[in-house]
Amino acid sequence: MPQIMKTIPGEKIPPANGHYSQCIEHNSTLYISGQLPVNPVTKQIPDDIEAQTQLVLEKIELILKEAGSSREKVIQMRIYISDIALWEKVNKVYMQFFGAHKPVRCVVPVGILHYSCLIEAECVAAI
Length: 127
What we know:
2 helices, CATH 3.30.1330.40, alpha+beta, six-stranded mixed sheet
């Protein structure tokens, strides 16, 4: 039986700004595109890394919920930061967000991100 990929629609999921889907489901697994810390309503970007990290995680959680999942079902996170010196602050917000749940994760310093954001994150989650 062929496996079907489907794009996850959702009224609360902000539209993609390019030629990509925000979330695709395949075999009961969700793949969420990289999320930048841009407020989907105001288009504002918080100034500090803690607020940017919180916003990125909240955007991912919103997409997870719209797709029928939750933060507790996140399998893997990939986090891209503009400077490795931000790692500790990102990790603190991340720990508070996930609590006892510890998805596998990588944090990659990549230099300048789109819109001069300090962080971008993507994830894989179960439904």
